[in-house]
Specification:
The protein has 482 residues and is an alpha+beta fold. The chain is built from 16 helices and 11 strands. The two termini are 29 Å apart. The protein binds adenosine monophosphate (AMP) and magnesium ion (MG).
Length: 482
């Protein structure tokens, strides 16, 4: 298997990981392989047959040069601090592409590790297919994300709400370093290890910060900025992560850990899909607050490196954290202006934006389709857009973008480059997964993947994949650890 491994994580303090191999599975079968991603990674697999790929990407056969480990980390889960770690994942190694980029190659669902606690170390076929389709969709939407290289079914049943087929996913990430990894090092290791780990992380993700006056502080600021950009991107497409715990917050700024995530249909800022998120901690519009909460935990972990004097360290960290809200608002506003095809800045834009969102909320309008309707007036996927209240808003908006009969070309281009035509809608994803899990039939799943690989294709609209679900989706629920 043609990976170019260079496994630097093993050179870190031995307390940060455990050396462990994947557990063999009964009967590995390749369900999905992402050839386009393999090409981007520079992997030439033309000589390898399906069974060999299934052996490698189930963990049954170790790839040359891999040095499997499970990474230790901690995290605040729904606000509560826990010692965690890769309980069902194994890092095979870091692959270097020909242009020098480094990627973690990780198997997820690959068996028990020292961090499994009471878990079985496994994952269901359905949830790994779900991570595959949603992470790939995020990539094509232009949002930083981990990616999915392969799904291999294991031929073994695992037990969740009954017996379900198991699978292993191969996840590709800039790294799996999380806010929770810093919390782990800060809480359970010395300041020297924290210093070494921080330098390692900066060198790996933000080498330009090595020469900063205060690298730890610069790291905090940069990670915060990356989170702001990421969450604004999520809000652009109606994505709800669902489990924004600190252990699911990547230092590299990628979307990571596709568990209970889902895309919003009807616009409601309080939307929650996760079965265990009873208080709406991770609701659509609470995501920026939680990002700040998570970054504050990172700041706490970095304090000893920011300044030897704790009070000074807190002061310096606070000065950065205090800029979050203003920065977020600015970037969010810029994003919303783009969604409306607005190219310059006017004060009243905020009112124009909020009145559209209010209208959507009040009238239970679909978030994605409303923005399509603006640039494609004959889209007409719903009667709702003939409402007088909507037409009034439309008139104001048209005035704002100097539209006559036609919408100006620049506005059209802007809108159609950031308002997706296709998102992975829960009901279409569920239908595809059901067929895959019950009958092993991936036809619908592959069709969906194909559609989602061109999310901004306004030339080729397909109402089947654009339609909002029939009934209100309030009863749609997602689950952790499946
Ligand atoms: P998550 O909510 O998916 O981010 O997972 C939180 C923690 O639980 C992580 O440390 C996971 O490795 C662990 N975990 C989740 N599912 C399992 C499982 N089936 N077996 C062992 N550990 C698990
Ligand atoms: Mg996680």
């Amino acid at each position: 298997m043609p990976f170019q491994f260079d496994n630097t994580y093993l050179k870190l303090d031995k307390g940060l990981f455990s050396i462990i191999n994947p557990t063999e599975v009964n009967d590995p079968n390749l369900a999905l392989f992402n050839t386009a991603l393999a090409n981007q990674l520079g992997l030439d697999i033309t000589e390898l047959d399906e069974q060999t790929l299934a052996d490698y990407f189930s963990g049954n056969k170790l790839i040359d040069g891999s040095q499997p480990i499970a990474q230790a980390y901690a995290g605040h889960q729904f606000g509560h601090f826990n010692k965690l770690g890769d309980g069902r994942a194994i890092l095979l190694g870091e692959h270097i592409t020909s242009d020098g980029n480094r990627f973690d190659i990780q198997l997820k669902g690959s068996g028990i590790t020292p961090y499994s606690r009471r878990g079985d170390g496994r994952a269901t076929l359905s949830s790994m297919l779900r991570e595959y389709v949603i992470s790939e969709s995020m990539f094509f939407l232009g949002i930083p994300t981990t990616r999915s290289l392969a799904v291999v079914s294991t031929g073994e049943n695992i037990y969740r709400e009954g017996a379900l087929p198991g699978a292993v996913l191969t996840r590709i990430a800039a790294s799996h370093i999380r806010v929770g990894t810093f919390q782990y090092v800060r809480n359970f290791h010395s300041k020297e290890v924290l210093q070494e780990f921080t330098s390692y992380t900066i060198q790996r993700h933000y080498p330009e910060l090595l020469s900063a006056e205060n690298p730890a502080l610069a790291l905090l600021k940069t990670v915060m900025n990356e989170q702001i950009k990421l969450i604004v991107n999520w809000m652009r497409v109606g994505f709800i992560h669902g489990v924004m715990n600190t252990d699911n917050t990547s230092i590299a700024g990628e979307t990571i850990d596709y568990g209970p995530c889902a895309f919003m249909n009807v616009y409601n800022p309080k939307t929650v899909f996760s079965s265990i998120d009873q208080d709406g901690r991770y609701a659509f519009d609470n995501q920026p607050n939680i990002a700040l909460w998570n970054i504050t935990r990172l700041a706490e972990a970095l304090l000893p490196l920011i300044d030897n004097n704790t009070d000074n360290a807190i002061e310096k960290a606070k000065n950065i954290l205090e800029t979050f809200q203003l920065q977020f608002n600015e970037i969010w506003l810029a994003m919303m202006r783009k969604k409306l095809g607005i190219t310059d800045i006017q004060e009243e834009d905020e009112l124009l934006i909020s009145s559209l969102l209010d209208w959507m909320h009040l009238n239970k309008a679909d978030y994605t389709n409303t923005f399509i309707q603006l640039s494609v007036p004959d889209f007409s996927i719903s009667e709702i857009y003939t409402q007088k209240t909507f037409i009034t808003w439309l008139t104001n908006w048209k005035k704002r973008i100097n539209a006559g009969k036609e919408i100006p070309e620049t506005a059209l281009e802007l809108m159609q480059s950031c308002n997706p035509v296709y998102i992975p809608r829960n009901h279409t994803v569920e239908a595809a997964l059901k067929l895959a899990q019950k009958k092993g039939d991936l036809t619908l799943f592959n069709q969906l993947l194909k559609i989602l690989s061109k999310p901004y294709d306004y030339q080729d609209m397909n109402h089947f994949y654009q339609a909002a679900p029939q009934q209100d989706e309030e009863c749609y629920k997602t689950y952790c650890g499946t």
